[in-house]
Amino acid sequence: MIQEEKSFEPSHYQAGPVHGLMNEFEPGTRTLPAGSRIDPRFRTLPTDIVLDKDVAVTLRDGVTIRVDVFRPAGTEKVPVIVAWSPYGKNHGTAPSVLGLFTMLGIDNGTLSGLQKFEGPDPAYWCAQGYAVCNPDPRGIANSEGDSVMFGRQEGQDCHDLIEWLAVQDWCTGKVAMSGTSYLAIAQWFTAAEQPPHLAAINPWEGLSDVYRDLVLRGGMPDIGFAERLQKQSYEGNNLREDILTEAERHPLVDELWEDKVPRFERVTVPAYVVASYSNTLHTAGTFRGWRRIASEDKWLRIHNTQEWPDYYDEEHVEDLRRFFDHYLKGEDNGWEQTPRVRYSLLDLEGGDRVDLAADSFPPADVTRTKYYLDARSRTLTTAQPAEGAQAAYRAESKSALASFVVGFAEETTMVGYPMARLWVEADGADDMDLFVLVQKLDRHGTPLQQFTVPGRSAMLHDLTEHGASVLRYKGSNGRLRVSARHLDKALATEDVPAHSFDRIEKLSPGEVVDVEIDLLPIGLVFHPGEQLRLVVSAQNALGGLMPMTRDYIPRNSGQHIIHTGGDRASYLQLPVKNA
User: Fold this and answer.
1) pLDDT per position as a tens digit, 319-351
2) CA angle, corner 148, sides to 147 and 151, nearest 5?
3) What would the pLDDT profile of 532-558 be if each residue is shown by its tens digit?
4) I want to staple 544 with a disulfide (CB 3.0 to 4.6 A). Which of 57, 415, 467, 528 is the partner?
5) What is the pLDDT of residue 564?
6) What pLDDT digit, counting tens, does each position of 470-505 carry?
7) 34: number of Cβ within 10 Å
8) Is it true that the peptide bond before 362 is cis, omega within 30 degrees of 0?
9) For residue 270, what pLDDT is reported?
10) pLDDT of residue 549
11) For residue 107, what are the CA distances in angstroms to 98, 233, 511?
């Protein structure tokens, strides 16, 4: 950890309805009776639940944090599930969350209101013989200290909480972690600290590299969501980490950012990882985490919607319980026979397929296939064009893009990691911000899209027309600032290019360079007559990540030139499933 490199700003917290129900500071133990509900908007409690509220837990450096523990009534010892995030112990009932779920078509009434935002519902888990711990990390609400945004400090803090929970007189000594988004991210860092009593983790979609996934994806300072995260979260009465200032002061990967990448090789606990193809914030990081952790017992499920409805789906909650029952209760329930990979295939016309079994991702029967760009015909072809050609666009124009298409005469399935290798040149500039998008087109050439949440309201259409990309899937995307093209040979693979982001290599006049761009994983089915379109652009066609999150404005000027064919054969590599 490198505390001296971090930047901080003041934070402020005041209890009130904005933070959800039951947010008042009230240390003590009470029982929430079966059949009751904390508010008419939520489900009734199926069993008596003991709430230990605002319990003090002292960390290794003397800082005291506050946690809520929900546990079954009675004297039988139980395992416990930790939901670690800075959003507040009671934020699951905050008006902003309830309004968001309603807008997205997610029924708040299916939950008890005891859950942390994006975390497990104690009403369900207590009825199944588990406790749930909702902590306020350091610097949040009434917890002491200065809050930090991701990194090893959080891992150590959660390590200490896990070891404290394990020795409580109501606990069996078995502890797990679960949750989506931030609650998933925290699991990578915590598991890397190897707390002795951590028995299993369940990262359900979350980034795993703060530089590459959040603040400087592709080497571009895209801080819209980071700004929202910092300014609207991390509320406490001391200081909070200022990641926006850090991104400005540390534009290249250094020790500050390396501290915000989990030590994957130290993650050895059983892991049930859940991912999707469509979350433009979390997809890359979730797949990266699953690939790189050292756990021998690890499972991956790739769903076809969005993390919140998927996480609270009854069937998926039961599936998670089987995993936890096996590793936290020692039940011989056949979990180990669960396919190591269950993936989905998106049809985008109502015919998605889910829970397809495989031993790996990509599945073994997938072949990396190069589709070469041909600037003369604006097509993609498996035969490399013999003659060189160029496609160009003015980088500052409204139509700053060049696209290439390929049609399919027979059903074609693609599942795995796409990547693009492009030969590019900037005329009148010394750098380029490149955006790449792979779209599916129907038989009439119309781009196909798909909402990832149950809602279909006019407002949801408006929000996702030019932004909120996590809520409407428009295709697999990637991006790269050309001056950040240097590859990290230790991390790059044939499937997934990885860049070091530790140097700047500007372009000279007339210089043509080849760049490799990783795209988000895909699972797509193309029916006869349908097409795939590759779009290379100077603009981000998807807009901001979340509703009302500002989009990144590229630093582009001059003319972008894409070279194809001959000795500069640009191509799109696609994972084609064997027929």
Assistant:
1) 999 999 999 999 999 999 999 999 999 999 999
2) 150
3) 999 999 999 999 988 888 899 999 999
4) 467
5) 98
6) 999 999 999 999 999 999 999 999 999 999 999 999
7) 14
8) yes
9) 98
10) 87
11) 9, 24, 55
Question: What distances in angstroms separate CA 264 from CA 187, 222, 226, 423, 490, one per listed residue?
Answer: 11, 25, 23, 33, 14
The SS3 call for residue 43 is coil
Residue pair 113/107 in contact by the 8 Å Cβ criterion: no
Backbone angles phi, psi at 461, to 5 degrees: -60, -45
| Dist. CA 281–CA 469, nearest whole Å | 9
Return the closest-CA partner of residue 68 out of 45, 92, 46: 92
d(CA 193, CA 188): 9
For 67-81, b/e burial (b = at least 16 CB within 10 A) is bbbbbbeeeeebbbb
- In 3-state terms, what secondary structure has residue 417? coil
Q: What is the mean pLDDT of residues 180-200?
A: 98
Q: How far is CA 15 from CA 11, 52, 142, 301, 518, in A?
A: 14, 19, 9, 38, 44
Q: Which segments of 13-130 does DSSP mark as H helices, in order?
A: 95-104, 122-127
Give the long-range contacts of residues 484-491, CB within 8 A, separation 24 or more.
Answer: 484/218, 484/219, 485/513, 485/515, 485/516, 487/516
**Residue pair 551/540 in contact by the 8 Å Cβ criterion:** yes
At residue 501, what is the residue type? F
Q: Which residues contact 506 (CB under 8 A, 6 or more apart)?
A: 430, 431, 483
User: pLDDT category, 377, cuts 50, 70, 90?
Assistant: very high
CB of 45 within 8 A of CB of 71?
Answer: no
Of 203, 358, 173, 167, which Cα lies nearest the Cα of 295?
A: 203
- Retrieve residue 353's tokens: 């397929």
CA 83 to chain centre: 16
Neighbouring CB atoms inside 10 A of 411's CB total 12
Q: What are the backbone angles phi and psi of residue 201, rounded to the nearest 5°?
A: -130, 160
- For residue 283, the model assigns a pLDDT of 98
Other residues' Cβ atoms within 10 Å of the Cβ of residue 54: 18
- Retrieve residue 288's tokens: 């990266």
DSSP state of 346: B
Cβ-count burial 459-470 (b if 16+ within 10 Å, e if not): ebeebbeebbbb
- Would residue 389 be called left, alpha or beta, if left means φ above 0 and alpha means ψ between -120 and 50 degrees? beta
Token digits for 116? 């942390």
Contact 569, 364 (CB under 8 A): no
Question: How do strand 78-82 and strand 131-136 relate by DSSP bridges?
Answer: parallel
Q: Where are the alpha helices (DSSP H) in 393-474?
A: 458-465
Helix, strand, or coil (residue 481): strand
Q: Determine contact, residues 423/562, Cβ cutoff 8 Å.
A: yes
At residue 549's C-alpha, the angle toward residues 547 and 550, to 5°, is 135
Half-sphere exposure of 105 (CA within 13 A, CB side): 16
